[in-house]
Design brief:
The protein has helices at 2-13, 27-30, 51-57, 60-66, 107-113, 124-136; strands at 41-46, 70-75, 87-89, 103-105, 117-120. By secondary structure, the protein is an alpha/beta fold. The longest helix is centred in the C-terminal third of the chain and has 13 residues, at 124-136. The radius of gyration is 15 Å and the shape is globular.
Length: 137
Amino acid sequence: MARINAVVNGLRAEGVYAVNYGVGPNEHMEVLQDQLPSNALIVDIYGGACAGTLYEMGTPDYKTEKGDKKVFTIFYPTSVSITGLNWLPRAYDDNFSPAGFKGLANPDQYLSKNGYNYIETGDVQYMTKSVYQEALL
């Protein structure tokens, strides 16, 4: 929570309205169901790269729920970097993806093809700067 609050406080210092919606396994969907402005930028910070979650972001249901809002993803340093990765296997604890889902090929390209930007970093100042720049796009 301290890391998220540091990013929120950094954005507020730049004059950006920012809210910490919390931490949880399905929070990336919960925030979409809230009454947010259509021009909202939703920032998901993940402590791991989950093939099922990334796959979900490209589905029609997720995109319908997202609407016109933008989603920017931050991967806090994990054991697997998705940049240049050929295959991200299904996570051992993925109990929400379709039964036949085995993983995601080229997850970085998948996000890009579906209109999402992301960064991989543990630097809170870089997170804040990146979110700020994404908000300007």
